[in-house]
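User: What would this chain look like folded?
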Amino acid sequence: MTIKRIFDFAHNALEKYAREDMFVTKYHGEWEKTSTQEYINMGNQISRGLLKLGIKPGDKISLITTATRTEWAVMDMGISQIGAVSVPVYPSISPEDYDFIFNNAEVKYCFVSDRELLDKVMQIKPNVGSLQGIFTFDQIDGAANWREILDLGKDEATQTEVEDISNSITANDLATIIYTSGTTGKPKGVMLTHENIVSNVLASDPRIPRVKGLDYKEIKVLSFLPICHIFERMLFYLYQYNGYSIYFAESIEKMGDNIKEVKPHLMSVVPRLIEKVYDKIYDKGTSAGGLKSKIFLWALGVNKAKQGIGKPSGLKEIIADKLVFSKWREGLGGNIITLVSGSAALSARLNKMFQNAGIPILEGYGLTETSPVISVNSFGKIKIGTVGHVLENLDVKIQEDGEITVKGPSVFVGYFKNEEMTKEAFTEDGYFKTGDIGHIDDEGYLHITDRKKEMFKTSGGKYVAPQVIENLAKASKFIEQIMVVGEGEKMPCALVQPDFNFVKNWADRKGYQLGDKPEELVKSPELIARIGKEIDYLNTKLGSWEQIKKFELTPNIWSIESGELTPTLKLKRKAVKEKYIKLYNKMYGHEE
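Assistant: Here's the prediction, encoded as structure tokens.
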């Protein structure tokens, strides 16, 4: 069948790839499978139930879940095939943002996964005139449950109405509004049509590796990134398109256990997760002591010295792989074909290390506004330090100032209720302005160098690209997070959040009595001096105008909940600066 709308992926899966374990979610400690046929049946029930509730094409329905689960998939299909518009929302954003999104989108019904999210939505319900009801996936006393919609749609007599509406939906109809968290300001509602998402899935599909002799029925995917983010959601449709079984992870905290249980072949990741996985591996390897630690560090040296990337060649590499890197692969379940990385820049150092450890990472690039993939590496054509070749159905143009602009079927139609912002987002000849700076090399690989808005100019007139410096700095075991500052100032400086767990272990090894609390640790002369050495080393890799002249340690862990990071773990630069304005002023000698 021809796929033109997002719900076509489900019907295509039934036609070509029907399986007993299309989706698998863990409930009360047990993995529960949903077959392709059950998925279609429940999706149709939801559609019929929503129609009985009075939902019409164009109405907005919000979906919020702490962890992705089968119910989300069923709701997505049921909503989309009757022309309603899904409004997925991050679970971690503030009630104020919920208030804004619900009112801006005029949400009619909301489906949440659990008690905590129900309480959050109930807080803002009195402020949202359009909101007629809230349903939960978990059984919660006193709350309407999503199964009430399934029950409403049990009668198949109205299925013809569902099919009539479904047949009338075109590729150009609006499928979803995704509100980007952004690093500043109010969320923006990105309007994506069915064609936007479908075209991106079909163009990205050739970049996913196939393994000879491995049938689609054997392939399992572990999905743990928020499905409200277009990166994971596009992959969710791509996996359906290939007939793969999708296991939904319980949480990031339980991901290690879930990987061992599922033994996935494919997973999407963000760079921060790769960093954390490596930190865990490194800590375990170096703390083993004696011969084990020596072998571990020797293997890392062999990995680093390897020219290029690929399978082990030569005796040293083969021994290092057998003794050390095979264990890394076992830790990821033993079946990983590839990890797909997006959302932010991945350290070239870590990328090379994992590639040479037999864990290929396909790094890509895109934005919510581009549904999301603009470019991605593929097997046999991986070039570390780049985000691969541009998808075949897109046209990328690098503007004179280095900004990456793009045109094509996956580029969004505009920001909801904001024509002025939509107009500003495009060039006069219709290219979407990504806000990223980059270039395409002679081999056609796209390189991202920084965010246009994040680049700043010092008072001496020199431009500084903070993200490049930050990625280099995070190679240090001592630095968990760092933000380079200096807009309009005489020199770059940095706010640093140490890796407190690593610091405590380091202090114990050294016999330092630095205290246990972060606020005690950041004041210790020993730690300040040690991180100073890390900054000094970093500066040897930088031009004189971009070297970090001063730094301050922050006593808190930067997180989504405390407001320093977006839900996709990017820095909220304005929020970080405001929170640590006293430290900022101290570095620059400003009067308070």
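The chain has three domains: 9-34+195-452, 35-169, 456-588. If you want, I can go into more detail on any region.
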